[in-house]
Amino acid sequence: MPEQLDLRLPDDVRLHVECTGPADADVTVVLLHGWTLDGRSWHRQLAALRDATAGSVRVVTYDARGHGRSSCMALPTATLAQLGDDLAAVLDEAAPTGRVVLVGHSMGGMTVMEYAHRHPEHFAARIAGLVFVATTAEGHTHTVYGLSPRIARLIRLAETTGAGVLARCGSWRPPRALLRALRPSIRWMLFGDRCDPSDIRLVTSAVARASLRSIGGFRASIGAQHRLETLAALGQLPAAALVGDRDRLTPPPCAESIAGALPATELTVCPGAGHMLMMERPEEVNAALLGVVQQVTARPAAPAAPAG
């Protein structure tokens, strides 16, 4: 059973954190979920890491503020900048020693970039590998939902307006009956050619646990972030970037620009896959993740540096 932590942050937000593996492991993998999701979205990667490493690697998942089993927050803190600060706090609490591989899906990948931007010394002291899954370093630059640019602009305007309304709804959760009715739209937006019904149920369940403030509040920050320069400054870190060629939210140009900024990145484009790669293409995601972990473990550990 995973060890469960309740991490209370300086602004009194409580994060739900789950850890497996030894606290003093040489390598820790931290899995960061996407917008409106929660840590359960990584269940196939958790199983692969457990089987491949025989429990020698520490694995940490947590629900971002306003998501899953973590508490809601004040609206001004519904930003990627705050999520980057939260990640630094999670590392200090749940993985205070050893090298770290960060794995981010969608908003989780953007959180990794914001952490690198806001805490460069902390990042340099701890991070040994990166995996970016269906994410972007360029906000909504490439997001056209698989539609014509003109229609995409109209959808983005409606989405932005709606997000502003939801952000003012506080800690309320979306009605489950409404989410069940929206399953066909969720399936179209998030998945590609193939979709297991259990994955739709899991995603719908996660959205039902996200506060309306987090669903609406993070939208502006996600659309505006630009962190290619931050990535370019990270040097030769072992890294992987994966994207589905049917991804309507972070299409292939997003992953290609990440790989262009990080020269040691292995780029994988998954035919027929959408935005939920860890569910749709677990074999490819697991192979990329384990490949980065193996590169990190094969390198000798640097002298220990203090976190914080």
UniProtKB/TrEMBL annotation:
<dbReference type="InterPro" id="IPR029058">
    <property type="entry name" value="AB_hydrolase_fold"/>
</dbReference>
<dbReference type="InterPro" id="IPR000639">
    <property type="entry name" value="Epox_hydrolase-like"/>
</dbReference>
<dbReference type="InterPro" id="IPR000073">
    <property type="entry name" value="AB_hydrolase_1"/>
</dbReference>
<dbReference type="InterPro" id="IPR050266">
    <property type="entry name" value="AB_hydrolase_sf"/>
</dbReference>
<feature type="domain" description="AB hydrolase-1">
    <location>
        <begin position="29"/>
        <end position="288"/>
    </location>
</feature>
<dbReference type="GO" id="GO:0003824">
    <property type="term" value="F:catalytic activity"/>
</dbReference>
<dbReference type="GO" id="GO:0016020">
    <property type="term" value="C:membrane"/>
</dbReference>
<dbReference type="Pfam" id="PF12697">
    <property type="entry name" value="Abhydrolase_6"/>
</dbReference>
<protein>
    <submittedName>
        <fullName>Pimeloyl-ACP methyl ester carboxylesterase</fullName>
    </submittedName>
</protein>
